[in-house]
Amino acid sequence: MIAQVSPWYAHAAQRTAAAPAHALTAPARMEWSTHPGRGPGAEILGPDLGRKRILELGCGPGHNVAHVAKHHHARVTGVDLVGLQVRRARSHYGSIDGATFAVGHALHHLEATGPTFDAIYSVFGAVGLVAPELLLAAICRRLHPRGVLAFSIPHPARAGRRPSADDRPREDFVTMPDHTRLPIARWEFDVHRWGAHLSRTGLRITSALELCHPRRDPWPTTLLITARKR
């Protein structure tokens, strides 16, 4: 029920109405930002992902799950809050070996699932949209020792904004396919504050990258953080 009143459900419903899902070829590259081709690919999840167990929190239509399963031969589960998105992902990539999709809230899925993972990632997904003190602790519990967490979020300084000065979320907006905007709450930290939250849950930052469009944006648009379980 939560999903059906969320902006993410409205976003998926508009996408579905505009273009019914059909089978797609797995993308040749994993994307971490809104500007294709910028930044690293799946290699930041580990040097050899073959047969590794990987989880995406907030998989949307499944493009990154499909890439990692098809081109890196990993066993990848994509979880999304919105059933419409999961149905689209299955329509797009359900035939790819190693790619599976599940409906659920990221935190609930982590708390209910049994397996542990070699890597967990989020691309403008659950990280930043779920209370960090809860979500990061749940992620750490589900990672193997030395397992990797990687997440990309809207850069807290995009368009001249300032990072949050405290640990509270602040109002942001999701732009719909029809260009309307719906409000959401988002945690928008700088690297130092993310590092503090990660450290408290047993994770340590190993890299932080600022990604931007080379010509269009004077400010960075995406913050990509990689961490490892101690």
For the record, the CATH architecture stands as 3-Layer(aba) Sandwich
Helix fraction by DSSP (H/I, runs of at least 4): 25-40%
Name of the CATH superfamily = Vaccinia Virus protein VP39
Q: Order of SSEs, N→C?
A: HEHEHEHEHEEEHEE
Q: How many structural domains are formed by the residues?
A: 1
Basic shape: globular
C-alpha end-to-end distance: 37 Å
Class per helix and strand makeup: alpha/beta
CATH class reads: Alpha Beta
Number of helices: 6
Rg measurement, Å: 17 Å
The percentage of residues in β strands lies in 25-35%
Kindly state the mean pLDDT as a whole number?
Answer: 93
Unreliable stretches (pLDDT < 50, length at least 5) are: none
Strand neighbour order, sheet with most strands: 3-2-1-4-5-9-8
Largest sheet: 7 strands, mixed
Structure description:
α1 packs across α3 and α4 packs parallel to α5. This protein is an alpha/beta fold. The strands form 2 sheets. It has a 7-stranded mixed sheet, with helices on both faces. A two-stranded antiparallel ribbon has the order 6-7. The relative contact order is 0.16. It contains 6 helices and 9 strands, in the order αβαβαβαβαβββαββ. It is globular and about 45 Å long. The longest helix has 12 residues. It has a single domain, classed as Rossmann fold (3-Layer(aba) Sandwich).
Summed up:
The protein has about 230 residues and is an alpha/beta fold. It is built from six helices and nine strands, in the order αβαβαβαβαβββαββ.
